[in-house]
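# step 3/5: fold
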Amino acid sequence: MEEEKARAALARTARAHDRKVREGAVTFHRGEPAPVNAVSGRSLDVDGAVRALASVIPGRSTEPIHLPVRRTEPKVGPGEVDRAMKEFATPAMSAPIALTVGGRKAEISPATLGKHLTMKPAGDNRLKPVLDGAGLLADPAVAGPLAQVSDKAVNAKLRLDGGRVVVASDGKAGQEVTARALQKAVLPLLTETGAARAGAVVTEKVEPKLTRDNVGSLGIKEQMSTFTVNFEPAPYRVTNIGRAAELMNGSVVLPGETWSFNRTVGERTEANGFVEGIIINNDQFEKAAGGGVSAVATTTFNAIFFAGVKPVEYGAHSFYIERYPEGREATVAWGSLDLKFRNDSGNAIYIDTRATDTSVTVTFLGTKKYDEIEAVKGPRTSVKKPATREGSSDECVPQTPLEGFNVAVDRVFKDDGKEVKRETFMTRYVPRDKVVCDGEAAA
């Protein structure tokens, strides 16, 4: 029994003082390389410690008891980290990479490169650079410029005809930069300097994901969900919502793939077809490029919700906006908040997106995984009253007050009229303070 108590006490001591070995490494952050120091591992030898304690005669020893500790040395030490920093990491982040595709140039910054670059121990315990070609190709900072210098494959267009999915127009192959080709072109350039940090990328023939011939085999046969959001017409809303819908329309998401709003729509800039509008920043309305796009994000979130597929990343507005359903809405922000879902339906999904001057509709076509999806909203709780404050910037926009609250929405999955699963989405809205702008308060 005494041994059991000793063993339990030693196990607690081990949990508090043991340390896992950490291999030396190199990371990249905002276009800068950073060394990660190696750390030796240590662990208390509990069995040996029990034996050491058992050998002590109570009351006869005043010397401290030295408990046995196992040490594990890292395989990648400071010398290898220094070498990797000097020979690869520092040169890799020293300047942009210039790529030529079909006679046109596209530049990739160190900050973008660093997001998709790692250094991992190889078999000889040396740090080896690994470039995620697929991630780099999908990065909006790269995908946008490359799209302008390549001939992308075009998916077939689909539509509903009396509840049946039909092909509206066929797809066509394109000449694109592939992840493999991008990785092969970029990686050797990272240790070069000056003009040598430029190179050509070959394009490959790429077939579209969706053609007239494979619609059936991909399982796109019916409407999974559809949702519409209405909005008050304003020139910026009409432009921005229409542009986002145009960029989304026709997206094909294969089984197991994750779809991203930001990756699909791109940055909301003038060059990408967006104009200045009203957004929410720091819990108040402000003017910024891409205002109104959250209507498309909210519509898409509801299409995701009622299609029964898995949201991967989403976020509601900080305060509630009356034209959206409580707890079933989403906003997006370039570089900080995306709307993503993973296609776990088992079949491909086709996204049909249409906008008018007063509404936007998102429809998912595929194969239903459940007979029916229901939304069950709970009451508002933890209600908090709004305050009144003055706007603090030149871009101030007056806003009316609205209470803050918590709300829960259950997503109920049904087959044969019976509930088979339920998920709860919790949303907290802060109060929407009354904001008065310069001049309005005095008036």
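# step 4/5: annotate
The first strand starts at residue 25 and ends at 29.
# step 5/5: archive (pending)
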